[in-house]
UniProtKB/TrEMBL annotation:
Keywords: ATP-binding, Nucleotide-binding, Transferase, Ubl conjugation pathway. It holds the Pfam family UQ_con. Accepts the ubiquitin-like protein NEDD8/RUB1 from the ECR1-AXR1 E1 complex and catalyzes its covalent attachment to other proteins. This is UBC core domain-containing protein.
Length: 189
């Protein structure tokens, strides 16, 4: 008969030895879940992911989105993700590094996306957020804005909104705000 207590003791001893050698780094539940989420990512062809601090720091990464349609066609927008060790019980903190004229992104880069706030649930994942961010560029929402001025222009004068987006993405002023150029490649329409 197998002595289960002896096997359990050996496993504990092996784990303690591994810790003493410094080869095992204890990962939080959030890191484990994020590892799984990243390994299962199914990014749209408009989106790339980068780890500016290296692959050892999965809790901080960037997503770049290049919309292939709509008002923001031809632009490139980078978002930073900071994931807490309590992920997935709390959503990642997501900021837009690219200054953008958008009803759902303010000039400081805060993002208004319901799944990053009140509608977050632990069953959601990084892929869901990325698809939500892509959706913001194809369907800006003027009903739940962070940039109220942009939302009002989108609602009342879509042609002026499109002109403002183009001016901002080309590197110019919209009202009192200056926007650095974020157009990439050929954007002739």
């Amino acid at each position: 008969m197998i002595n289960l207590f002896k096997i359990k003791g050996q496993k504990k001893e092996e784990a303690a030895n591994a810790l003493n050698r410094g080869t095992v780094k204890k990962q939080s539940a959030g890191e484990l879940r994020l590892n799984k989420d990243i390994s299962e990512l199914n990014l749209p062809n408009t989106t790339t992911i980068a780890f500016p601090n290296g692959k050892d720091d999965l809790m901080n990464f960037e997503i770049s989105i290049r919309p292939d349609e709509g008002y923001y066609f031809g632009g490139m927008f980078t978002f930073t993700f900071q994931v807490s060790p309590s992920y997935p019980h709390e959503p990642p903190k997501v900021k837009c590094k690219t200054k953008v004229y958008h009803p759902n992104i303010d000039l400081e880069g805060n993002v208004c996306l319901n799944i990053l706030r009140e509608d977050w649930k632990p069953v959601l994942n990084i892929n869901t957020i990325i698809y939500g961010l892509n959706l913001l560029f194809s369907q800006p929402n003027d009903e739940d804005p962070l940039n109220h001025e942009a939302a009002a222009v989108l609602r009342e004068n879509p042609k002026l909104f499109e002109s403002n987006v183009r001016r901002a993405m080309s590197g110019g002023y919209v009202g009192q705000a200056f926007f650095p150029r974020c157009l990439v490649g050929s954007t002739a329409r």
